[in-house]
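Re: the 206-residue chain
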Amino acid sequence: MEHVLHFVFGIFGNATALFLFLSPILTFRRIIKNRSTEEFSGVPYNMTMLNCLLSAWYGLPFVSPNNLLVSTINGTGALIEATYVLIFLIFAPKKVRAKMMGLLALVISVFASVALISVFALHGQTRKLFCGFAATIFSICMYASPLSIMVPNGCGSALGAMQLILYAIYRNHKKEETNGVAKTGDSMEMDNVKPAQKYESNGEQV
């Protein structure tokens, strides 16, 4: 009964995960239609691909026995996310494409390092813990990756709010200074005019 429940809940979990992986389809349909990535970020798709690769590796029989469903769904997810990354690279501007290529290289390097270390340096339970720990860390990174967009916008909002506050504080001071300069200018102008009124046009003093 335990194995049956394990399998059933595994199927439901895989179905839910598949919908999660397919959810950006509308976004990429728009990217392909407009032939531009617009303001979309490619970071979440790279991080999701890394998470899927590590989770699929963790589910392999020689790493973590009886977790084949983990490998199948995450292997499928890795292929889907790789497709997203490829589409993003095709339609991204040159500067963005260069950054995404660097991130993709990092993703491949991290996965290759985890895989090689687990195969050649670790065995048994230690291998399972190492791969599970790596998959957990980059799963957290996957869920945090949308902050690559939210954090700059959040900082921009905070800085914009500070500018508005400073403007509200010093707005009246600026007007007072301007009025003061205007009054001083008027006074100086009157001082310059009064002596001139003491002379007639021929230059003789009245």
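The chain has a mean pLDDT of 81.
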